[in-house]
Amino acid sequence: MNLKDIIEEVNNLLDYNPDLQPYKDAVSRTVSRHYQEISTEAPWLFMQNVVQFPVYAPVKGSSTQTVAITTPTRFATFTGITPLQSWTGALFTAPDGNEYRITRVTGATAYFTPQYLGTTVSGSASWEITFDRYALPSDCAEPLGFMDRENERGRLLFIDRRREEELFLNADDGGDVFALIEDLHISDRPPEFAPTATLSLGGTLPIGVEFEYCYTFAVEGRESPPSIPVTAAKTVAGSQTVVVAGLENTQVGGLDTGVVKNIYRRNKTSNGRWLFLIQRLEAITNFTDDGSAPALPFETNVLAPQEPRQYVRGYYTSNEDRKLELRYLRKPRRLQADSDVPLWPEPYHVLLVYRTLQDICMQSGMNGQSTMYERRGNDVLKRMQGKWLARSDKNIIRQGFTYGGIGYFERWGNPRKIG
């Protein structure tokens, strides 16, 4: 069932459908709220994902790998080495001996914060990149396990901050990573003001469509919550261009900061998905959407739960590049477009119908019906828990035979559920 099917089922069981957009939006928000709450309340097997989780050795300057910094500035230019995207968010120890956080990498240039405090340098080998923390995936609700399969060391430890403080696991100790330590949870502010969207002449956007726009900030590999969305007038023949203006200038004191803006668009007429359009640099405060920029329908932060981005650090601090494996519980995107489908097995989509009806009936004073839908939802949730919770919650053991030559570690007999 997609979102449209779920809302239609809710309306059918209520025998009520006013065909008003505010009502549809309210039902959609209620469905999405329950979807996000239930999806992240337990380690569902269908909500888990596994990705590579690389850790990196420090990168140091040399006579052939140098840096140039011209003050006043917030960026450094490297020679003899090309900065990698993995440097984003790392610490840059500059020739002046101070540490700066890298906000963005492009070409041979790395932007950092705060502003450089030293004097102009050229061809300096006195620099270092250190990886003091690593960002978990943007859709990670909770890390479930770290593995080192490359070196056959198996499951690694995951330690919270309190335990690390008791053990005093010093970040200056280098070696092979055998534990990951919970670090900061970092939030970024959204744009302060909504942009403006004005219909203009020319262009190739579809005729008869209202387009909605918003934008986010991208910094240190993170993405901020979106701005307030704004809707342009419906396109007509000959006026198929939208000028998006009023984007925030993210320079500081006239200096580029590495904080750029991601612009998104959606077809509001057909209740479509948010699509990424283009990235704009610090000083650029407008964008002309004439239909030539291809919209990229990948997972976007616009509909993601607006939660702080979680970081971890390794202990020991890695002395060499390694590829670990991370298994984690995913955060679901908010359901908004009619075609959005919950990341659940389809037989359990009806749980969202029952939970939404429970809220609507309670709000309308129909307490008896609210209780009925609550019980129906609990029955579905219990079935979903029985089948799709992590296997450790449903261990199966086998009753043993009397000794008959079976090896000590073998377990035989009829299966019996213990969880």
Name the structural class. Answer: alpha+beta
Largest β-sheet summary: 8 strands, antiparallel
β-sheet strand percentage: 25-35%
**What's the count of strands?**
27
The residue-averaged pLDDT reads: 89
The spatial strand order of the largest sheet comes to 2-9-5-6-7-4-3-8
**What overall geometry do the principal axes of the alpha carbons give?**
flat
Spatial gap, N to C terminus:
30 Å
Q: Radius of gyration over alpha carbons?
A: 26 Å
Amount of helix: 10-25%
Low-confidence stretches: 393-415
Number of helices: 5
What can you see in these coordinates?
This protein is α+β, with helices and mostly antiparallel strands and 419 residues long. Helices cover 18% and strands 32% of the residues. It is built from 5 helices and 27 strands. An 8-stranded antiparallel β-sheet has the order 2-9-5-6-7-4-3-8, with no helix packed on it. Residues 393-415 have low confidence and may be disordered.
Features:
419 residues; alpha+beta; eight-stranded antiparallel beta sheet; 5 helices; 27 strands; 18% helix; flat
Explain the layout of strands and helices.
Layout: H1 3-14, H2 21-40, E1 48-55, E2 59-60, E3 66-69, E4 75-79, E5 91-93, E6 99-106, E7 109-113, E8 121-124, E9 128-130, E10 134-135, E11 140-148, E12 154-159, H3 161-167, E13 174-175, E14 179-186, E15 196-200, E16 211-219, E17 222-223, E18 230-231, E19 241-245, E20 260-267, E21 275-280, E22 286-289, E23 309-315, E24 317-318, E25 322-330, H4 350-363, H5 367-388, E26 396-398, E27 415-417
Parallel strand pairs: 12-14, 13-24
Antiparallel strand pairs: 1-25, 2-9, 3-4, 3-8, 4-7, 5-6, 5-9, 6-7, 10-23, 11-12, 11-25, 14-23, 15-19, 16-17, 16-18, 16-20, 19-22, 20-21, 26-27
Helix pairs in contact: 1-4, 2-4, 4-5
